[in-house]
Amino acid sequence: MKLSADSPQVTLPIRGADISSLKKSEDKGGIYYDENGAPDDALKILRAHGLNYARIRVWVNSPDGYHGKSQLLEMAKRCKANQLKLLVDFHYADTWADPGKQPKPKAWESLDFEGLKQAVYDHTCDICSALKAQGTPPDMVQVGNEITNGMLWPDGKNDKNFDNLAALVKEGIRAVRDCSPKTLVMLHVDNGSNNEMCRWWFDNMLQQGVEFDLIGASYYPYWHGTLADLQNNLNDIALRYDKDIVVVETAYAFTSKDCDNYENVITTQEQPGYPFTPEGQARMLGDIITIVRGVPNGRGIGIFWWDATWIAVRGNGWDPADPASGNNWENQALFDYESRPLPAMDVLGRL
């Protein structure tokens, strides 16, 4: 792969980790260690390795009682104490929301469209206002998670037009601006290597008059095309839209082995030149960082590793409605199976 022209070897302004699983992991007995094997706060470990941002998802009424306002407020205080800025990822759902599913929260199911718009505004305003009131206003907010195909289906699905999706997103953005004017607003799509999709999506949102600050894109090498595809897309949309860009979700496995007797999502999808080893994981991340750093006009400003702290802990599985479910992601965390930092953590924080 030929990367873009040489760019200054400066550390990216945003070096982040999604830590959404951390609170539940700790409550269920998860312990994190530094390189010397001493137990320590995972946030302190991440900060010591050079990370400066944490991303936390928010669900409306999760079946397990986590991923809600109370945990977010607690974690926001801890982030501030560890000098980590905060990105709040609004899912507008009670569980996972992504391109394949954008379920309405149960409490919103009977609302008409005007009611849905109001619910989006109220929920967003409630979270942002509570964070601001305790002295931890969000530095950045995602209005929706991977909303490539819309949100709050079927009302906000954008398979026919973008009118409803844009109207819902505008309410979320309005709430952020009203409650916390200094907070940056990101719009987030999946598949950061798909230029046709990104152009289609952001062209339509801008035509609808949606005003936002940052472009967020997911990039998982085993799902989303080559590194060259990622580079071509990020370079193009940086010039096309003249907005800062963050690869707000990425990950790669450090092993193909399982740790909790629950099959992982990624087991055999190694990319050429990037084995599922700690070194291969670090090399993949380093090359993604090189691409982001090389985006024209300095518009590539950061990367977040997805759920970096999701180690294998009984009771902290993928299904919030099933306490017995296992973790299908632990081989892609930034902590190894002894809960110690992996080399990729240093790459993310220092490169």
Written description of the protein model:
The chain is α/β, with parallel strands linked by helices and 351 residues long. The protein is built from nine helices and eight strands. The protein is 33% helix and 13% strand. An eight-stranded parallel β-barrel has the order 1-2-3-4-5-6-7-8. Strand 7, helix 8 (278-293) and strand 8 form a beta-alpha-beta unit. The longest helix is centred in the middle third of the chain and has 21 residues, at 113-133.
The gross shape turns out to be globular
- Low-confidence segments, ≥5 residues, pLDDT <50? 1-8
Report mean pLDDT, rounded to a whole number: 96
Counted beta strands: 8
Instruction: Name the quaternary structure.
Output: single chain
Q: Report the biggest beta sheet as strand number plus sense, adding barrel if it closes.
A: 8 strands, parallel, barrel
SSE pattern, N- to C-terminal: EHHEHEHEHEHEHEHEH
Query: Helical region count?
Result: 9
